[in-house]
Amino acid sequence: MGSFEHFYLVEDGHGRWTIRHQITDILAGTILRTAGGFRLKNDHGRTVGNFASIEDAMAGLYASV
Residue 56 is inside which H or E element, if any? Predict the structure, then answer.
């Protein structure tokens, strides 16, 4: 089961996305496009990591849950 099966993205402005749980619709995190890639933050606003793609960031969120 992949990360996109558990979460979905909502565009939240230029270069920003909110990640929500598929079933509960609860906030799971955010992704911000930066010069160095895509910064993933968890639902508490703590940086999980920087990733080369949105798909990698989603996989990073899935791995951290």
Answer: helix 54-64
- The pTM score is 0.85
Q: Which helix (H) or strand (E) holds 41?
A: strand 37-42
Q: How far is 35 from 25, CA to CA, in rounded Å?
A: 29
- Residue partners of 21: CB distance under 8 A and separation at least 6: 6, 7, 28
- What is the tens place of the pLDDT at every residue in 4-58? 678 899 999 999 999 999 999 999 999 999 999 999 999 999 999 999 999 999 8
Per the DSSP assignment, residues forming a β-bridge with 21 are 7
Is the Cα dihedral 25, 2, 11, 35 positive or negative? positive
